[in-house]
Amino acid sequence: MEAVTEWSLTLTLAKFDGILGLGFREISAANALPIWYNMVQQGVVSQKVFSFWLNRGSKSDKGGEIVFGGVDPKHFKGNHTYVQVTQRGYWQISLEDFLIGNQSTGVCSGGCAAIVDSGTSFIAGPTAILAKINEAIGAKGLVSMECKQVVFEYGDQMWHLLISGLEPEKVCSSIGLCSNNHSWHRSKMIEEVVESESAGESKDGENFFCSACKTAVLWIHTKLLQNGTKERIFEYIDKLCERLPNLKGQVAVDCDSIPRMPPVSFIIGNKSFELNPKQYIRKVQRGDSAICVSGFVPLEVPPPQGPLWVLGEIFMEAYHTVFDFGNRRIGFADAAQY
């Protein structure tokens, strides 16, 4: 199975050629026998266990390792905390509580289901709780924040080029955000800003900053024709950036504020598994600029199956994870980083 289309942040943060399913047979397509089941049946593994170690953010050449048939003691520190799988299909466990700082959110007072999934880059959870997280960390919609970033960094240049008489369609290439052969579709600019964040590039092969620049230039030019003042025009643009729709629940934060953000904690098996801001915020480099993206994305699953969390790579980078197929349990220990 090959992944041929993915939204931009997925490809930026987790480049891959395909997906290897390691869930239970209950969710396999056409009841096909998963590769892990074959390995167990053929006796090619000494233990019915596989484990994940993800070594992100390290200067080491090793990005991580999956061990089929056991664990490597160099990959973790201390002992694992094991919890039983509550439902076969995905590797699903029970989540007892979720804390922001040291305060319980109360979302799991009646119990929450959580899926541990190496195929998910982020951590997914109930929208209401993610709103609390985003408020605590000062997160804003990613499209809106990037729009504001373009205006903040290049707004003065756009302004001076326009009032000097440069044609609007030449402004963005003049300041280096668009190629010289870019097209100028006024009626589709806002759509391009949103679509380019989803696809990584606009339909013309340009990146998000080019599309955002063209949109901002259009807004400035329109207001200049109405004899607007610079201060009023940029106040207007700031409001328009706020109103741009955001895709996939993506939100971004001010990179400089990361040290002031609170930790978050998952209570699993009566033990607290904490993530600090450097662990749950992704810093994405885009040319000379960096964008810091929240590692939490919304997921709405109604009762009785929900509320549901998905503990993806962000969680597994912090905690070495053992999938104990033989005993139907999952274990977590502090991941070694080197």
Describe the structure.
With 338 residues, the chain is α+β, with helices and mostly antiparallel strands. It has helices at 8-13, 35-41, 127-137, 142-163, 168-174, 189-199, 208-225, 230-243, 277-280, 313-318; strands spanning 49-54, 64-68, 76-84, 92-95, 97-100, 103-104, 112-116, 123-125, 140-141, 251-253, 264-268, 271-275, 281-286, 289-294, 296-298, 308-311, 319-324, 329-335. The longest helix is centred in the middle third of the chain and has 22 residues, at 142-163.
Quick structural summary:
With 338 residues, this protein is α+β, with helices and mostly antiparallel strands. 31% of the residues lie in helices and 25% in strands.
What attributes characterize this protein structure?
alpha+beta; glycoprotein; NK-Lysin; 10 helices; five-stranded antiparallel beta sheet; 31% helix; 338 residues; 2 domains; aspartyl protease; Cathepsin D, subunit A, domain 1; single chain; five-stranded mixed beta sheet
